Structures are given as C-alpha cells and as structure tokens.
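Anyone able to model this chain together with zinc ion?
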Amino acid sequence: MFGLFGKVTDPVCKMGINKKEAKFSSESKGNMYYFCSQNCKDKFGTDPKKYAVEETKSEECCH
Ligand SMILES: [Zn+2]
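re: yes, here you go
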C-alpha cells in the first residue's frame, strides 16, 4: 500500500500526500515524515512523539 508510489500520510493532519510533491519533510528516529505544509511540519517539530504514531508498524502486523 504505502510506499509503492510514494504515497504518504501527513502525521499531523492525516492528509494523504504524494512524497514527490511534499515540500516539507522531517526525520525522526530514522523515519521520514512528510507534511502538507510548513505549519504541520512546525507542529510535528514541537512534539514529534505525539505525532510519530506507530502506524507504520501496525499496518504490517495484523493481517
Ligand atoms: Zn498537514
């Protein structure tokens, strides 16, 4: 699902965005996060733990 064509989710507002088109990104603990706007990136930057949810893990675990 995610990853094939660079489709990612903005962890702050949960908006689906294209990695190619994402102008705002940030790295946290080795993971890249992409944002729809500088505003979302700033929010993430103030409290990464709040937004760096474990979605990436759970997506693969429960099939
Ligand atoms: Zn956003």
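The chain is about 30% helix and 25% strand.
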